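Note on ligand handling. Small-molecule inputs were canonicalized before submission; formal charges were left as drawn, and no protonation-state enumeration was performed. Where a ligand contained multiple stereocentres, the stereochemistry in the source SMILES was retained. For copper (II) ion, this procedure yielded the string shown in the input block below.
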Amino acid sequence: MTDVWDEQLLWYARAVRAMQGRPESDPTSWLFQANIHGTRSASDNPEWNNCPHGGWFFLPWHRAYILCFEGIVRDVIQNELGGPNDWALPYWNYTRVTNGNPNSPESLECRRLPSAFRSPDWPDGEADNPLFLAEPKRSPGAAGGLPVEWAEVNPHAAMQAPHFTGVTQFGSADTDSQLLHRSAEHDGLLEMQPHDLIHGYVGGVMLQFISPQDPIFWLHHCQIDRLWAAWIASNSGHRNPTEADWLGFTHTFRNAQGNQVGFTSEELQSEEALGYVYESLTDGVGLKPPERLVAMMEAGVDPPAEKVASTTGPTDLGPDTLTVPLTPEPSARAEALPEAASPNTESRAILTMDDVRADAPPQTNYRVFVGARPDHEEDLDPEGPYFIGHLHFFGAVGASTHHHGGSGLTFKFDITEHLTELRQLGMWNGEGIPPVVVTPATLGPPPPDAEAEAVARAAAPTPPPESRPRIGSISLATT
Ligand SMILES: [Cu+2]
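Structure output:
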């Protein structure tokens, strides 16, 4: 997809407008379609509030979801608007890299929210572009055309995962035949990055379970769907689950006539069998990051751990870089951490952030560093040795009245290699507890034609005060 108003986007915008004019009770309406994923307030409709995040149905469920949505949009374009009969949902290729350089002008352009979604006007100058949402329905960064950083979207870790099933594998752990709606554990690599982080970057509506109300949602999920197809195509060893629980699960949606249609995960495995192909399965599928690996730990299945240090209360996040001191546990052995941070032991060092939540979209992702000096700009580099991972708030916003959210997310980082590397580089001598530093994710340069005021406003992500992003507790343990 190119970042201009091409015909495909124009037809999309017209169809969005038409669907928005249909009553919410109409299964082919804009709101009904978004409600399938999540509603603004509680609802008893069993067809609504069904998005499965944090489980192994994440990919097939969203494939059927966008496939049915595409069918509805195509039908509107052809039969209501008199347009072409071959419209297809575009994908937003934010992982595209030109000339191997993620910071080339073309690469940066791909990581800005596409301009058709940032303009309040239709291309002919008329206002009311339905692809546009004003702040705070989007983050100032995305709205202002700042690109999300490459470190946040590089899908390399996911695309290299050998297996579909498993914690920190491509498509999440085995979650039986249950459709999880509110799992705090997003452990599939593709779901974590780039999926969750793009929700965080676009912010606003996209950070909540009503995210399909933002028209960019569908292009984002089309890209996630393409990366799934690309993962399968890239290596004959990459296979979908073969368990009956996964293959036989039926995902039910509405077709263009408003009728219910069901697809099993088995039927959703091949996009060709479903009648579509992607322009490319190799363009923008990741670059190898610098030679250091940050693994996220298996969540929920904790090995016996010895707590080494923890926070004494909640940590409030804000617009500034924050150093969070961890207080050593009185009972912990002083050698526990340096023992773990040694290539010769099996022991692991695990940093856990519990009950991560916000009252309103914080409009930024956060980066987590361990051992960095907060006043040294160069230490806060997401490709440098102090970086351990990202926090996002997708699904952690609001004390929700319906069954989504409200419980806070848990992030676990295995920082064993990280601490070992810091010791080897002489950046930590093994004594004391290296501090945790949390900082809002910075964004890239503004578009060349951006207005100065918009640029200044968007340059530093500042969470609105009412969002109160926070971490309930942080603890460091060794196994
Ligand atoms: Cu999503």
